Amino acid sequence: MRWNDLELFENGRKTAEKMRMSEALKNFNQKNDEYYKFLTIYSNKRG
Q: At the top level of its lineage, which domain of life is listed (predicted)?
């Protein structure tokens, strides 16, 4: 393996991790949104 092959591999791995992180964040935020919508609807029904 040549040096810049290794470098490319590292960069690719970092990029993939960033993408995975932002995917996870998006999913997390989406779940949070649904949860808050549920809470608002629920509290509106009670109030």
A: Bacteria
